[in-house]
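Figure S7 source data.
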Amino acid sequence: MKTILQTTEDGSHTLYVPELDEHYHSTHGAIGESMHIYIDAGLRHCLSAEINLLEIGFGTGLNAFLTLLEAEKLQKKIHYTTLERYPVSVSTAAELNFSDFTDPSRKETFRMLHTAAWEEWVQVTPFFWLKKLSMDLHDFLMIPQDEKFDVIYYDAFAPEKQPEMWRQEIFDKLYAFSRDNAILTTYCAKGVVRRMLQSAGYIVERLPGPPGKREILRAGKKV
Ligand SMILES: C[S@@+](CC[C@H](N)C(=O)[O-])C[C@H]1O[C@@H](n2cnc3c(N)ncnc32)[C@H](O)[C@@H]1O
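Tokens for the predicted S-adenosylmethionine complex:
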């Protein structure tokens, strides 16, 4: 997918996809959005001592990078599985300025997320293991998972752009792939998505969104 580097309102970069007329993050602030939805509303609400996390859409690696930094603050070990159908090139990733806005001394750590081998576990830091899978979500969902997930970041492109990524069967499978008390967060608060999550079995909360977004969703597997 052809992408164009852009700067969002908090100064952090994002990528724009002309073919879809879609950004990877909110133009009101990429880092602010990721922190708000995935770290604050998702990761920090998980009480497990060690966390098995699934991300839909590795993209720029921003969510993975923020999670790696947070794992150190929380002193929790995180196994981070992430799916990506259209990987961003290492050279494009090298232009992204996320470490400038978080911890400039970790620029190399961010680079390692992109140079890490695909399809296998790679230990990136003492608290963070990464497995990048270059595959379509639909294919991943066909594979039985031995280890279920505590946290899911559902960060696909918007339903208007990729309707096939927002279907009931997907959320049913993700629910089945989740441990008891698991959390799924997403930026998309549309009623139709909320109802699909509820039909899958989740208890869904609408939470205030980051700048430019009224609400986000947090779904919990309560048993
Ligand atoms: C909103 S962006 C994700 C942003 C990413 N989490 C980040 O931090 O940069 C959506 C991502 O989903 C990926 N994607 C699109 N269709 C997919 C599919 N069928 N399976 C897996 N990933 C897909 C896109 O290539 C893109 O990287």
